[in-house]
Amino acid sequence: MNQEDARTLIPLYALDLLDADEQAALEQVLASDSELRTELEQYHAIVDDLPLLVEARPAPDIRDKLQSRLQQSKRRTLWLRRGYWGAFAAAIILFVLTSIYLLAGVDDQDDRDEPTPDLVQEVLQDPESRAFDVSATDETASFIGRLTIDSQTEHAVLWVDGLQALDEQDYQLWFVKSDTERFDAGVFSVDEDNVATYLVDLPEDFESYLAAGVTIEPEGGSEDPTSDPILLVDLTQ
Labelling 138: which of 36, 68, 75, 105 has CA 20 to 30 A away? Predict the structure, then answer.
């Protein structure tokens, strides 16, 4: 690991959000680099003040929930890793917002330790949600999937089984209004079982969109599609 790679990881190290391998590699570099150790001390000083940003005491499992949220979106992770000050600021904001969100969902009753409902499950379980089948553009492909849309929460969940993991590329979701108008709904990846579960923020004028499609784009996504869609969803059904 070189100094620049180490510098990129320092903000997440200060928040104790690295996995064991990353932590060990970074600590090896820190042992011989006083400049990076000084930077780490500065980040630790900021982290020590984080509790002051949340008026109430965070739930005991706040760190685990924060880690889960950071790992849910590959797009968010890529963004965090691109710039170390941007990474640290974003992680702090996410920490504070997650703390507030969890505290708002916890009362003083005996069910205090019950998990806060997951927005993904809210969308999937809402009887008012609308579900659309996902179709593969390649007839030989074996994808199965569904796009579930909840206009009440202004979110949707894309679930696809059968996608392959990509190397230095991402899957990117688009909502299509016309040949020239589309909404970038972000990039996503698949888990070890080749399943993608992606929470989507709907466009403001969602009802005017005719379809949704998934393309394969360079890592981090593209401003406009650079390939033909591999998956399509007819939103006019």
Answer: 75
Q: How many helices (H) and strands (E) does the chain have?
A: 7, 9
Tokens at 225, concatenated:
């599609």
Query: Residue 139 has what pLDDT?
Result: 80
Q: Are residues 142 and 95 in the same domain?
A: no
User: Which amino acid, one-letter code, is at 20?
Assistant: A
> What whole-number distance in Å separates Cα of residue 136 and Cα of residue 143?
6
Rounded CA-CA distance 27/5 in Å is: 12
110 touches 121 (CB < 8 A): no
Residue 204 phi, psi (nearest 5): -60, -40
Task: Among 79, 104, 129, give the residue marking a domain's end.
Answer: 104
Rounded distance, CA 19 to CA 10, Å? 13
Residue 114 lies in a domain: no
Partners of 170 in beta bridges? 217
Write down the pLDDT at residue 116: 34
The residue written with tokens 């630790």 in the block is: 44
Ranges of the chain whose pLDDT falls below 70: 46-117
